[in-house]
Structure formats: C-alpha cells, structure tokens
Input
Amino acid sequence: MADGRAAVAAGVDAIGLVFYAASSRHIEPQQALEIARAVGPFVTVVGLFVNADAHTVHQVLDQVPLHLLQFHGDEDEEYCAAFKRPYMKAIRMRPDLDVEAQIAAFPTASAILLDAYRPGVPGGTGETFDCRRVPSDSDKPLVLAGGLTADNVAQAISATRVYGVDVSGGVESSAGVKDVNKIQAFINNARSGA
Output
C-alpha cells in the first residue's frame, strides 16, 4: 500500500497490480484491493495477467476495482475483449516480429504495450529494445516498456513520442521493492522527455 501511495504522490497516472504467480511482484486480490482503495479515484488501476484462465480473471474482477486489464501472455483478441473491460495488450518485440500486424490483431485494445523480448520470459526482464522499431504512425496509443529507468526514459519518450511508459524494475531497490526516490526521478525525467 505504501508503494501505491508513494507512486501517487510522485504523480503517476496509473499503477499496475500483478496477478501472475511466477512474478516476484505478484500480489493476492485482498492486498490488491487495499492498494486500489489507497490510490484514490483519479489513478488508473491496472491488473496484469499472463495466460490466466478466464475464471481467474473474473475472480480478480469480482474482488478488485480494476480500470484496465493488461494481458502480457499469448492471449488473442477474442480472449482479451471477452471481459468487456478496457484492456492493453503487451507485445514482446521479437527480432522477427511484424509490429504493425501485431497491433492490427487487437482492434479492440485501448492501447498496445511494446516490451523487450527474452525467450520464455513474459516481461519484467529489465532489458531494452531498439526504439526505432516503435511505429511512428500508429492509430493505437502505444505504451513503451522494457528496461526503462530515470536515466533513459526522457530519451526513450523523445525518440518514440509514445502515449505512455510503463516501469517496474527501473524504480525498484530490489525485485518487487519500490524506491520512492527512483519513482520520483523517473516521473520527473519522463515529464521532461514528453
């Protein structure tokens, strides 16, 4: 809960709650509910899922007031849209990926998150990818993720002109433990790159 409040105090637009058991950032619905209530009504609460069965997603939705769903696995458009909630689909930037075709495969997505690719790892690698691969003319809002820190976020935003950025490891002192100073520095530098 303290991490959520610190993020809000720093000026974030959204916070992410990870419902993926294999992640060091995984939280249970009761803890997620407490965080969602603590951040207030004007911060978007995002629930992150990786190849979760529909029952699991519905269970979380019954317990936690999520504004946006983020699907970070191999989910297809039909699955993502079935929850009748705004969603963001993460696309891992494999070297051979046709980025425009992948974006087009999710017409109902509110946004597309572009993340670094590492085989067998759905995200949270702390690695970056070549920002020149980010489409400059997408009709869909794009969110940049992957290895972002206070040191590189302004340059990444300036180079890509994306709608938003997503960070987790880049503002942590250790896996799953947020650092208030890193959060504030990240926000400050993200604003300077916009």
In short: The domain at 2-193 is CATH 3.20.20.70 (TIM Barrel). The first helix runs from residue 2 to 10.
